[in-house]
Amino acid sequence: MSKVIVIGGGAAGMMAAYSAGMCGHKVSLLEKNEKLGKKIYITGKGRCNFTNACDIEDFFKNVVSNPKFLYSSLYTFGPDSMIDFIELHGTPTKVERGNRAFPVSDHASDITKALEKALREVNVDISLNTEVDSLVIDNGKVTGVTLKSNKTISCDHVIVATGGISYRTTGSTGDGHKWAKAAGLNVSDMRPALVPLNVKEAYIPSMQGLALKNVNLTIYDDKKKHYDSFGEMLFTHFGVSGPLVLSASSIIGKILQKRGSLKALVDLKPALSKEDLESRILRDFNDNMNKHLSSVLRGLLPSSMVPVFIELMDFDDERQINSVTKEERATLISLLKAFPFTITGLRDYNEAIVTQGGVSVKEIDPSTLKCKNIQGLSFVGEVLDLDAFTGGFNLQIAWSTGYLAGLSI
Ligand SMILES: Cc1cc2nc3c(=O)[nH]c(=O)nc-3n(C[C@H](O)[C@H](O)[C@H](O)COP(=O)(O)OP(=O)(O)OC[C@H]3O[C@@H](n4cnc5c(N)ncnc54)[C@H](O)[C@@H]3O)c2cc1C
Q1: Ligand 1 atom, smallest distance to 396 CA
Q2: Phi, psi torsion values for 39, nearest 5 degrees
Q3: Ligand 1 centroid vs 41 CA: distance in angstroms?
Protein backbone atom coordinates (compact mmCIF):
# COMPACT_ATOMS: atom_id res chain seq x y z
CA MET A 1 0.00 0.00 0.00
CA SER A 2 1.41 3.42 -1.00
CA LYS A 3 0.77 6.93 0.16
CA VAL A 4 -0.51 8.80 -2.89
CA ILE A 5 -1.10 12.53 -3.41
CA VAL A 6 -3.30 13.64 -6.29
CA ILE A 7 -2.93 17.34 -7.17
CA GLY A 8 -6.08 18.85 -8.71
CA GLY A 9 -9.68 17.92 -8.00
CA GLY A 10 -10.95 18.24 -11.57
CA ALA A 11 -12.19 15.39 -13.74
CA ALA A 12 -8.83 13.63 -14.12
CA GLY A 13 -7.74 14.10 -10.51
CA MET A 14 -11.01 12.89 -8.99
CA MET A 15 -10.93 9.76 -11.14
CA ALA A 16 -7.24 9.10 -10.40
CA ALA A 17 -7.89 9.49 -6.67
CA TYR A 18 -10.85 7.10 -6.91
CA SER A 19 -8.99 4.36 -8.74
CA ALA A 20 -5.91 4.62 -6.50
CA GLY A 21 -8.24 4.47 -3.47
CA MET A 22 -10.07 1.51 -4.97
CA CYS A 23 -6.72 -0.32 -5.13
CA GLY A 24 -6.26 0.20 -1.40
CA HIS A 25 -3.75 3.05 -1.43
CA LYS A 26 -3.91 5.85 1.11
CA VAL A 27 -4.95 8.76 -1.09
CA SER A 28 -5.01 12.53 -0.45
CA LEU A 29 -6.67 14.73 -3.07
CA LEU A 30 -5.48 18.35 -2.91
CA GLU A 31 -7.57 21.04 -4.60
CA LYS A 32 -6.88 24.75 -4.46
CA ASN A 33 -10.50 25.79 -5.06
CA GLU A 34 -13.23 25.81 -2.45
CA LYS A 35 -14.92 22.89 -4.20
CA LEU A 36 -14.14 19.94 -6.46
CA GLY A 37 -14.73 19.97 -10.22
CA LYS A 38 -15.19 23.70 -10.72
CA LYS A 39 -14.70 23.35 -14.49
CA ILE A 40 -17.17 20.45 -14.68
CA TYR A 41 -19.96 22.83 -13.61
CA ILE A 42 -19.57 24.88 -16.78
CA THR A 43 -19.12 21.98 -19.21
CA GLY A 44 -21.75 21.26 -21.83
CA LYS A 45 -23.40 24.65 -21.08
CA GLY A 46 -24.01 23.48 -17.50
CA ARG A 47 -25.30 20.05 -18.58
CA CYS A 48 -21.90 18.28 -18.72
CA ASN A 49 -21.48 16.24 -21.86
CA PHE A 50 -19.38 13.82 -19.78
CA THR A 51 -18.47 11.31 -22.49
CA ASN A 52 -19.25 10.12 -26.00
CA ALA A 53 -20.84 6.71 -26.30
CA CYS A 54 -19.19 5.87 -29.63
CA ASP A 55 -17.06 2.85 -30.54
CA ILE A 56 -13.53 3.17 -29.27
CA GLU A 57 -12.14 3.22 -32.81
CA ASP A 58 -14.41 6.20 -33.62
CA PHE A 59 -13.24 7.82 -30.42
CA PHE A 60 -9.65 7.90 -31.65
CA LYS A 61 -10.76 9.70 -34.83
CA ASN A 62 -12.01 12.54 -32.61
CA VAL A 63 -8.73 12.97 -30.75
CA VAL A 64 -6.68 15.77 -32.33
CA SER A 65 -3.32 15.42 -30.53
CA ASN A 66 -1.64 12.08 -29.83
CA PRO A 67 -4.54 9.63 -30.19
CA LYS A 68 -2.23 6.59 -30.06
CA PHE A 69 -1.04 7.55 -26.60
CA LEU A 70 -4.59 6.91 -25.38
CA TYR A 71 -4.95 3.26 -26.44
CA SER A 72 -4.26 1.69 -23.02
CA SER A 73 -6.26 4.34 -21.14
CA LEU A 74 -9.33 4.03 -23.34
CA TYR A 75 -9.27 0.25 -23.59
CA THR A 76 -8.92 0.04 -19.78
CA PHE A 77 -11.64 2.56 -18.96
CA GLY A 78 -13.62 3.77 -21.98
CA PRO A 79 -16.93 5.58 -22.46
CA ASP A 80 -19.03 2.49 -21.53
CA SER A 81 -17.13 2.09 -18.26
CA MET A 82 -17.67 5.78 -17.51
CA ILE A 83 -21.40 5.61 -18.15
CA ASP A 84 -21.66 2.54 -15.87
CA PHE A 85 -19.55 4.31 -13.25
CA ILE A 86 -21.79 7.39 -13.19
CA GLU A 87 -24.98 5.30 -13.09
CA LEU A 88 -23.60 3.07 -10.31
CA HIS A 89 -22.91 6.17 -8.25
CA GLY A 90 -26.46 7.38 -8.33
CA THR A 91 -26.70 9.61 -11.43
CA PRO A 92 -28.89 8.30 -14.29
CA THR A 93 -27.54 9.17 -17.74
CA LYS A 94 -28.85 9.60 -21.27
CA VAL A 95 -27.30 9.63 -24.74
CA GLU A 96 -28.28 12.34 -27.22
CA ARG A 97 -27.56 13.15 -30.87
CA GLY A 98 -24.00 12.39 -31.90
CA ASN A 99 -23.61 9.85 -29.03
CA ARG A 100 -23.19 12.69 -26.54
CA ALA A 101 -23.81 11.46 -22.98
CA PHE A 102 -25.32 13.70 -20.27
CA PRO A 103 -26.86 13.23 -16.84
CA VAL A 104 -30.66 12.77 -17.22
CA SER A 105 -31.13 15.75 -14.89
CA ASP A 106 -29.18 18.03 -17.30
CA HIS A 107 -27.25 19.21 -14.24
CA ALA A 108 -23.46 19.04 -14.45
CA SER A 109 -23.39 19.07 -10.64
CA ASP A 110 -24.82 15.52 -10.69
CA ILE A 111 -21.66 14.28 -12.39
CA THR A 112 -19.51 15.82 -9.66
CA LYS A 113 -21.86 14.38 -7.02
CA ALA A 114 -21.36 10.87 -8.45
CA LEU A 115 -17.59 11.35 -8.32
CA GLU A 116 -17.75 12.67 -4.76
CA LYS A 117 -19.80 9.65 -3.71
CA ALA A 118 -17.20 7.34 -5.29
CA LEU A 119 -14.36 9.18 -3.51
CA ARG A 120 -16.11 8.71 -0.14
CA GLU A 121 -16.61 4.99 -0.84
CA VAL A 122 -12.86 4.42 -1.17
CA ASN A 123 -11.95 6.79 1.69
CA VAL A 124 -10.05 9.42 -0.27
CA ASP A 125 -8.97 12.24 2.01
CA ILE A 126 -10.03 15.51 0.34
CA SER A 127 -8.35 18.85 1.16
CA LEU A 128 -10.01 21.89 -0.41
CA ASN A 129 -8.49 25.40 -0.44
CA THR A 130 -5.13 23.65 -0.58
CA GLU A 131 -2.75 24.94 -3.21
CA VAL A 132 0.38 23.01 -4.07
CA ASP A 133 3.42 25.18 -4.70
CA SER A 134 5.96 22.62 -5.92
CA LEU A 135 6.97 18.99 -6.12
CA VAL A 136 9.75 17.66 -3.89
CA ILE A 137 12.09 15.59 -6.05
CA ASP A 138 15.15 13.90 -4.62
CA ASN A 139 17.59 11.90 -6.75
CA GLY A 140 15.12 11.37 -9.56
CA LYS A 141 12.31 10.35 -7.23
CA VAL A 142 9.31 12.34 -5.99
CA THR A 143 9.15 12.29 -2.20
CA GLY A 144 6.32 14.76 -1.59
CA VAL A 145 4.80 18.15 -2.31
CA THR A 146 5.18 21.59 -0.78
CA LEU A 147 2.03 23.63 -0.27
CA LYS A 148 1.68 27.40 -0.76
CA SER A 149 1.42 27.52 3.04
CA ASN A 150 5.03 26.20 3.11
CA LYS A 151 4.01 22.89 4.63
CA THR A 152 5.63 19.84 3.02
CA ILE A 153 3.69 16.56 2.82
CA SER A 154 5.63 13.41 2.06
CA CYS A 155 4.30 10.55 -0.04
CA ASP A 156 5.36 7.65 -2.26
CA HIS A 157 3.63 8.82 -5.43
CA VAL A 158 2.24 12.06 -6.87
CA ILE A 159 -0.34 12.26 -9.65
CA VAL A 160 -0.43 15.71 -11.30
CA ALA A 161 -3.93 16.54 -12.58
CA THR A 162 -3.78 20.33 -12.72
CA GLY A 163 -5.45 20.73 -16.14
CA GLY A 164 -4.57 23.04 -19.04
CA ILE A 165 -4.54 26.86 -19.06
CA SER A 166 -7.96 27.73 -20.46
CA TYR A 167 -10.72 29.30 -18.32
CA ARG A 168 -8.18 30.13 -15.59
CA THR A 169 -10.92 31.16 -13.17
CA THR A 170 -11.78 27.47 -12.80
CA GLY A 171 -8.31 26.88 -11.32
CA SER A 172 -6.38 25.65 -14.37
CA THR A 173 -3.45 28.04 -14.29
CA GLY A 174 -0.64 25.91 -15.68
CA ASP A 175 1.06 24.91 -12.40
CA GLY A 176 1.61 21.34 -13.63
CA HIS A 177 3.43 22.61 -16.72
CA LYS A 178 5.67 24.76 -14.53
CA TRP A 179 6.58 21.79 -12.30
CA ALA A 180 7.20 19.58 -15.33
CA LYS A 181 9.60 22.15 -16.81
CA ALA A 182 11.35 22.58 -13.46
CA ALA A 183 11.83 18.80 -13.35
CA GLY A 184 13.46 18.91 -16.79
CA LEU A 185 10.49 17.44 -18.68
CA ASN A 186 9.61 18.60 -22.15
CA VAL A 187 6.43 20.70 -22.39
CA SER A 188 5.24 21.25 -25.96
CA ASP A 189 4.08 24.69 -27.11
CA MET A 190 0.57 25.51 -25.93
CA ARG A 191 -2.24 27.36 -27.67
CA PRO A 192 -5.98 27.83 -27.19
CA ALA A 193 -8.08 25.18 -28.99
CA LEU A 194 -11.82 24.70 -29.61
CA VAL A 195 -11.79 28.47 -29.67
CA PRO A 196 -13.43 31.15 -31.88
CA LEU A 197 -11.35 32.90 -34.54
CA ASN A 198 -10.60 36.58 -35.23
CA VAL A 199 -11.29 37.82 -38.75
CA LYS A 200 -9.84 40.82 -40.61
CA GLU A 201 -12.72 42.03 -42.83
CA ALA A 202 -15.07 44.67 -41.39
CA TYR A 203 -18.09 43.14 -43.13
CA ILE A 204 -17.96 40.07 -40.86
CA PRO A 205 -19.01 41.87 -37.62
CA SER A 206 -21.82 43.56 -39.57
CA MET A 207 -23.44 40.09 -39.67
CA GLN A 208 -22.92 39.45 -35.95
CA GLY A 209 -25.47 36.98 -34.54
CA LEU A 210 -26.07 35.28 -37.88
CA ALA A 211 -25.84 31.47 -37.66
CA LEU A 212 -25.33 29.50 -40.88
CA LYS A 213 -26.40 25.86 -40.96
CA ASN A 214 -25.26 23.25 -43.49
CA VAL A 215 -22.38 25.22 -44.95
CA ASN A 216 -18.92 24.07 -46.00
CA LEU A 217 -15.86 25.81 -44.58
CA THR A 218 -12.46 25.61 -46.24
CA ILE A 219 -9.31 27.11 -44.72
CA TYR A 220 -6.12 27.37 -46.75
CA ASP A 221 -2.95 29.26 -47.53
CA ASP A 222 -0.99 29.67 -50.74
CA LYS A 223 0.51 26.21 -50.26
CA LYS A 224 -2.35 23.93 -49.24
CA LYS A 225 -5.81 23.34 -47.83
CA HIS A 226 -5.69 22.92 -44.05
CA TYR A 227 -9.34 22.34 -43.23
CA ASP A 228 -12.45 21.39 -45.17
CA SER A 229 -15.64 20.44 -43.37
CA PHE A 230 -19.39 20.80 -43.28
CA GLY A 231 -21.61 22.07 -40.44
CA GLU A 232 -22.77 25.12 -38.55
CA MET A 233 -20.99 28.44 -37.99
CA LEU A 234 -21.72 31.80 -36.45
CA PHE A 235 -20.64 35.40 -37.15
CA THR A 236 -19.65 37.46 -34.12
CA HIS A 237 -18.45 40.97 -33.31
CA PHE A 238 -14.82 39.84 -33.70
CA GLY A 239 -15.03 37.10 -36.33
CA VAL A 240 -16.42 33.58 -36.44
CA SER A 241 -17.48 30.90 -33.99
CA GLY A 242 -19.86 27.91 -33.86
CA PRO A 243 -19.17 24.14 -33.98
CA LEU A 244 -17.49 24.12 -37.41
CA VAL A 245 -15.15 26.96 -36.45
CA LEU A 246 -14.28 25.51 -33.04
CA SER A 247 -13.25 22.21 -34.66
CA ALA A 248 -11.30 24.13 -37.30
CA SER A 249 -9.38 26.02 -34.61
CA SER A 250 -7.98 22.76 -33.23
CA ILE A 251 -6.70 21.74 -36.64
CA ILE A 252 -5.34 25.08 -37.92
CA GLY A 253 -4.14 26.65 -34.62
CA LYS A 254 -0.50 25.75 -35.03
CA ILE A 255 -0.19 26.79 -38.69
CA LEU A 256 -2.22 29.97 -38.03
CA GLN A 257 0.21 31.01 -35.31
CA LYS A 258 3.13 30.31 -37.63
CA ARG A 259 1.73 32.13 -40.66
CA GLY A 260 -0.14 34.97 -38.93
CA SER A 261 -3.21 34.65 -41.14
CA LEU A 262 -5.09 32.13 -43.29
CA LYS A 263 -7.73 32.45 -45.99
CA ALA A 264 -11.22 31.01 -45.53
CA LEU A 265 -14.08 30.32 -47.93
CA VAL A 266 -17.64 29.38 -47.07
CA ASP A 267 -19.73 27.46 -49.56
CA LEU A 268 -23.19 28.79 -48.70
CA LYS A 269 -24.91 26.37 -51.11
CA PRO A 270 -22.93 23.13 -50.84
CA ALA A 271 -25.84 21.03 -52.14
CA LEU A 272 -25.93 22.94 -55.47
CA SER A 273 -23.31 22.82 -58.22
CA LYS A 274 -22.31 26.13 -59.87
CA GLU A 275 -24.43 25.15 -62.89
CA ASP A 276 -27.53 24.39 -60.77
CA LEU A 277 -27.05 27.64 -58.93
CA GLU A 278 -26.70 29.58 -62.18
CA SER A 279 -30.00 28.10 -63.52
CA ARG A 280 -31.75 28.95 -60.27
CA ILE A 281 -30.45 32.54 -60.33
CA LEU A 282 -31.38 32.99 -64.00
CA ARG A 283 -34.90 31.80 -63.16
CA ASP A 284 -35.14 34.20 -60.21
CA PHE A 285 -33.79 37.07 -62.32
CA ASN A 286 -36.21 36.37 -65.19
CA ASP A 287 -39.14 36.41 -62.76
CA ASN A 288 -38.03 39.74 -61.22
CA MET A 289 -36.54 41.77 -64.09
CA ASN A 290 -37.69 45.16 -62.79
CA LYS A 291 -36.80 44.64 -59.14
CA HIS A 292 -33.64 45.54 -57.25
CA LEU A 293 -30.93 42.92 -56.79
CA SER A 294 -31.33 43.04 -53.00
CA SER A 295 -34.92 41.84 -53.20
CA VAL A 296 -33.86 38.76 -55.19
CA LEU A 297 -30.87 38.13 -52.90
CA ARG A 298 -33.27 38.02 -49.94
CA GLY A 299 -34.66 34.79 -51.44
CA LEU A 300 -31.17 33.31 -51.60
CA LEU A 301 -29.49 34.58 -48.45
CA PRO A 302 -30.12 35.48 -44.80
CA SER A 303 -31.11 39.17 -44.76
CA SER A 304 -27.98 40.38 -42.89
CA MET A 305 -25.80 38.95 -45.68
CA VAL A 306 -27.60 40.86 -48.44
CA PRO A 307 -25.89 44.27 -47.95
CA VAL A 308 -22.54 42.48 -47.64
CA PHE A 309 -23.08 40.77 -50.99
CA ILE A 310 -24.09 44.06 -52.63
CA GLU A 311 -20.92 45.65 -51.24
CA LEU A 312 -18.62 42.79 -52.31
CA MET A 313 -20.18 42.77 -55.78
CA ASP A 314 -19.56 46.50 -55.92
CA PHE A 315 -23.13 46.81 -57.19
CA ASP A 316 -25.32 49.91 -57.18
CA ASP A 317 -28.58 48.63 -55.73
CA GLU A 318 -30.50 51.45 -57.43
CA ARG A 319 -30.01 49.45 -60.62
CA GLN A 320 -32.60 46.87 -61.61
CA ILE A 321 -32.07 43.16 -62.20
CA ASN A 322 -32.39 43.63 -65.96
CA SER A 323 -29.09 45.56 -65.89
CA VAL A 324 -27.06 42.80 -64.15
CA THR A 325 -24.26 41.73 -66.47
CA LYS A 326 -23.03 38.20 -67.06
CA GLU A 327 -19.81 39.04 -65.16
CA GLU A 328 -21.80 40.36 -62.20
CA ARG A 329 -23.85 37.17 -62.19
CA ALA A 330 -20.63 35.15 -62.19
CA THR A 331 -19.34 37.18 -59.23
CA LEU A 332 -22.57 36.51 -57.37
CA ILE A 333 -22.30 32.76 -57.98
CA SER A 334 -18.69 32.72 -56.94
CA LEU A 335 -19.55 34.58 -53.69
CA LEU A 336 -22.31 32.07 -52.95
CA LYS A 337 -19.97 29.12 -53.52
CA ALA A 338 -16.88 30.73 -51.96
CA PHE A 339 -17.70 33.56 -49.55
CA PRO A 340 -14.27 34.85 -48.47
CA PHE A 341 -12.68 36.14 -45.29
CA THR A 342 -9.25 36.20 -43.65
CA ILE A 343 -8.55 34.53 -40.31
CA THR A 344 -6.06 36.57 -38.32
CA GLY A 345 -5.80 34.69 -35.05
CA LEU A 346 -7.19 32.49 -32.31
CA ARG A 347 -9.24 34.10 -29.53
CA ASP A 348 -7.55 33.76 -26.16
CA TYR A 349 -7.56 31.11 -23.45
CA ASN A 350 -10.55 32.65 -21.66
CA GLU A 351 -12.68 31.56 -24.61
CA ALA A 352 -10.94 28.24 -25.31
CA ILE A 353 -12.64 25.01 -24.33
CA VAL A 354 -9.30 23.23 -24.19
CA THR A 355 -5.56 23.82 -24.29
CA GLN A 356 -3.59 22.25 -27.09
CA GLY A 357 -0.05 21.20 -26.14
CA GLY A 358 1.25 20.52 -22.65
CA VAL A 359 3.50 17.97 -20.95
CA SER A 360 4.95 15.92 -23.81
CA VAL A 361 3.49 12.43 -24.02
CA LYS A 362 7.01 11.24 -24.90
CA GLU A 363 7.89 11.76 -21.23
CA ILE A 364 5.08 9.43 -20.09
CA ASP A 365 4.53 5.67 -20.30
CA PRO A 366 1.09 5.35 -21.94
CA SER A 367 0.33 2.05 -20.21
CA THR A 368 0.73 3.53 -16.68
CA LEU A 369 0.76 7.36 -17.09
CA LYS A 370 3.98 7.32 -15.08
CA CYS A 371 6.79 9.65 -15.95
CA LYS A 372 9.58 7.66 -17.63
CA ASN A 373 12.51 9.45 -15.98
CA ILE A 374 11.20 10.51 -12.58
CA GLN A 375 10.08 7.84 -10.17
CA GLY A 376 6.82 8.22 -8.27
CA LEU A 377 5.30 10.81 -10.64
CA SER A 378 2.33 10.57 -13.04
CA PHE A 379 0.52 13.15 -15.20
CA VAL A 380 -3.14 12.83 -16.21
CA GLY A 381 -5.81 14.80 -18.08
CA GLU A 382 -5.47 18.09 -19.89
CA VAL A 383 -2.06 18.95 -18.42
CA LEU A 384 -0.76 16.43 -20.99
CA ASP A 385 -0.40 17.20 -24.70
CA LEU A 386 -3.81 15.66 -25.46
CA ASP A 387 -6.93 17.31 -26.89
CA ALA A 388 -9.98 16.26 -28.86
CA PHE A 389 -13.00 17.68 -30.65
CA THR A 390 -16.20 18.61 -28.80
CA GLY A 391 -18.70 15.84 -27.99
CA GLY A 392 -17.58 14.54 -24.57
CA PHE A 393 -14.16 13.39 -25.79
CA ASN A 394 -12.08 15.75 -23.67
CA LEU A 395 -13.68 14.77 -20.39
CA GLN A 396 -13.36 11.09 -21.33
CA ILE A 397 -9.63 11.63 -21.86
CA ALA A 398 -9.50 12.99 -18.30
CA TRP A 399 -11.50 10.04 -16.85
CA SER A 400 -9.54 7.38 -18.79
CA THR A 401 -6.05 8.68 -18.07
CA GLY A 402 -6.99 9.35 -14.44
CA TYR A 403 -8.37 5.87 -13.95
CA LEU A 404 -5.36 4.09 -15.48
CA ALA A 405 -2.89 6.21 -13.50
CA GLY A 406 -4.55 5.34 -10.17
CA LEU A 407 -4.73 1.68 -11.12
CA SER A 408 -1.07 1.59 -12.12
CA ILE A 409 0.48 2.67 -8.82
C1 LIG B 1 -16.66 26.13 -21.09
C2 LIG B 1 -16.15 24.71 -21.21
C3 LIG B 1 -17.03 23.72 -21.57
C4 LIG B 1 -16.58 22.40 -21.73
N5 LIG B 1 -17.49 21.44 -22.03
C6 LIG B 1 -17.06 20.15 -22.16
C7 LIG B 1 -17.99 19.11 -22.40
O8 LIG B 1 -19.21 19.31 -22.39
N9 LIG B 1 -17.50 17.86 -22.59
C10 LIG B 1 -16.15 17.58 -22.53
O11 LIG B 1 -15.75 16.42 -22.72
N12 LIG B 1 -15.24 18.54 -22.23
C13 LIG B 1 -15.68 19.80 -22.04
N14 LIG B 1 -14.76 20.79 -21.72
C15 LIG B 1 -13.34 20.41 -21.53
C16 LIG B 1 -13.14 19.71 -20.17
O17 LIG B 1 -13.83 20.44 -19.17
C18 LIG B 1 -11.67 19.59 -19.78
O19 LIG B 1 -10.97 18.98 -20.83
C20 LIG B 1 -11.50 18.78 -18.50
O21 LIG B 1 -12.20 19.39 -17.43
C22 LIG B 1 -10.04 18.62 -18.11
O23 LIG B 1 -10.00 17.97 -16.87
P24 LIG B 1 -8.69 18.01 -15.95
O25 LIG B 1 -9.06 17.30 -14.70
O26 LIG B 1 -7.51 17.54 -16.71
O27 LIG B 1 -8.44 19.55 -15.66
P28 LIG B 1 -9.36 20.63 -14.87
O29 LIG B 1 -10.77 20.29 -14.99
O30 LIG B 1 -8.89 21.94 -15.36
O31 LIG B 1 -8.95 20.43 -13.35
C32 LIG B 1 -7.71 20.85 -12.83
C33 LIG B 1 -7.89 21.08 -11.36
O34 LIG B 1 -6.61 21.25 -10.75
C35 LIG B 1 -6.70 22.27 -9.78
N36 LIG B 1 -5.35 22.83 -9.57
C37 LIG B 1 -4.59 23.46 -10.48
N38 LIG B 1 -3.43 23.85 -9.93
C39 LIG B 1 -3.44 23.44 -8.63
C40 LIG B 1 -2.53 23.56 -7.54
N41 LIG B 1 -1.35 24.19 -7.67
N42 LIG B 1 -2.88 23.02 -6.35
C43 LIG B 1 -4.08 22.39 -6.17
N44 LIG B 1 -5.00 22.29 -7.18
C45 LIG B 1 -4.67 22.79 -8.39
C46 LIG B 1 -7.66 23.26 -10.39
O47 LIG B 1 -8.21 24.14 -9.43
C48 LIG B 1 -8.68 22.34 -11.04
O49 LIG B 1 -9.73 22.02 -10.17
C50 LIG B 1 -15.20 22.10 -21.51
C51 LIG B 1 -14.32 23.11 -21.12
C52 LIG B 1 -14.79 24.40 -20.97
C53 LIG B 1 -13.82 25.46 -20.51
Answers
A1: 11
A2: -70, -35
A3: 10
Indicate whether 204 and 73 sit together in one domain: no
| Among candidate residues 44, 40, 78, the one with its CA nearest the CA of residue 60 | 78
Q: What is the pTM of this model?
A: 0.96
From 130, 166, 173, 395, mutation site for ligand 1 pocket: most ligand atoms within 8 A of C-beta: 395
Residue 24 Cα to ligand 1 midpoint, Å, equals: 26
Encode pLDDT of 171-200 as tens digits: 999 999 999 999 999 999 999 999 999 999
Residue ending a domain, among 347, 364, 390, is 347
Ligand 1, atom nearest to 130 Cα: 43
Q: What is the CATH number of the domain that holds 153?
A: 3.50.50.60
Q: How many domains does the chain have?
A: 2
Last residue of a domain, one of 347, 362, 386: 347
According to DSSP, residue 148 is labeled T
Phi, psi of 329 (to 5 degrees): -65, -40
Per DSSP, which regions of 202-319 are E strands?
211-220, 225-235, 239-241, 262-267
Q: In this predicted model, what pLDDT tens digit does every residue of 91-103 receive, in sequence order?
A: 999 999 999 999 9
